[in-house]
Amino acid sequence: MKRERLKRSKRRSSPVWLVTYADMIQLILVFFILLFAMSQIDMAKFESITRSFQSRAILDFLPSSVPSEDISSSDNILGGEGDDFDFGDDSSGDEDEAIDFDKIEEQLRQLERKADALARLMQNVESFLESEDLGDVITATRTEEGVILVLQDSILFESGQAEILDSGRPFLDEVGRLLKGIDNTVRVEGHTDSRPINTYRYPSNWELSGARAGVVVRYFIEEHGIDEDRFLIAGYADTRPVAENTTPENMSKNRRVEIVILDDAHNQAKAQNE
To answer: Rounded CA gap, 93 and 58, in Å?
Structure first.
C-alpha cells in the first residue's frame, strides 16, 4: 500500500512553471490571432469605395488597377448602400475642370501685342537717335522691362556735382521730345563709380546718384511740360556697375544716367503677380 501511494504521488506531480508557461503561450497566441483578424481588409468594401472615387472627375486622370464600373450597382459600401454616398453631380465638375482655351488665346494675343509694342518703341527710339545723330552719345537697349536710354554723366554733370551742364541740355531736350510723344511710364536712374564721396551736400554716392536722377526728371517736367505722374526716380550709387571699376575708362562707363521707358503692360502683369 505504501508503495502504491508513492507511485501515485509521483504521477500527479509536474513542474508548476510548465502550467504557467502553457497558459502564457495560449494567451499570446490568442493575442496575435486577434491582431491578425483586425488587420484584415474587406476587399469587397475596398473595391466598392475605389469605384466610387473613380467616378469623380478629379481622379479621372489617375491610373487604377481596379476596373471602373457604375457605382449604382454597388452592393454595399462600409455596411451601407452605395446610394448613401452623395458626391454631387459629376457633370458640373467636368465643366469646372475644363480648360478655357478662349482665355489662353486672349493671353497669347496680349503677349503678341506687347512684343509688337516693344519692337515699335525700340524702332522709334533707334530711328530718333539716328536722325538726331545721337548714337555716339546716347545708347538704347531693349530689355523685358522696356527700352533703356543710357547717357554718360560726362555730358550732363561735372565730377561730384548734380547740376546739369549747359552742354548737356540739348541732349536732354531731344530725349524730352521723344518722351513727350509717348505715354509710357519712365524711370530715371542715377549711377556712380566706386570712388567714395563725402561732401556737405552729398555725404555718399547714394545722395549723388539720387540727386542726378532727380534733376533730370525735374528738367523734363519744367522744360517740356511732361506729366510728373509718369516719372519714377531711383539712385543706385555704385551697386549696379556695367564694368569693373579698375580703370578710368570703366569708371566713366559706370557714371551714367539711365532713362528706362517702361513697358506698362509688363509692369502691370508683374504688379498683379506680386
So the answer is: 8
Distance CA 252, CA 255 (A): 5
* CB burial of residue 181 (10 Å; 0-12, 13-18, 19+): exposed
Locus of grid cell 484584415? 40
Specify the pairing of strand 256-262 against strand 186-191: antiparallel
The domain ranges of the chain are: 2-97, 103-273
Contact criterion met (CB below 8 Å) for 182 and 261? yes
What does the pLDDT read at residue 140?
A: 84
pTM above 0.90, yes or no: no
Give how far Cα 190 sits from Cα of 4, 26, 173, 213, Å: 121, 88, 18, 5
- Residues in the chain predicted with pLDDT less than 70, given as ranges, are 1-19, 37-98, 110-118, 135, 265-274
Three-class secondary structure of residue 218 per DSSP: helix
- Check if the beta carbon of residue 114 is closer than 8 Å to that of residue 107: no
Q: Strands 231-235, 186-191: parallel, antiparallel or unpaired by DSSP?
A: parallel
Q: In what order do the strands lie in the sheet with 146-152?
A: 138-142, 146-152, 256-262, 186-191, 231-235
Q: How is domain 103-273 classified at the CATH fold level?
A: 60s Ribosomal Protein L30; Chain: A; (3.30.1330)
What CA–CA distance (Å, rounded) separates 93 from 36? 41
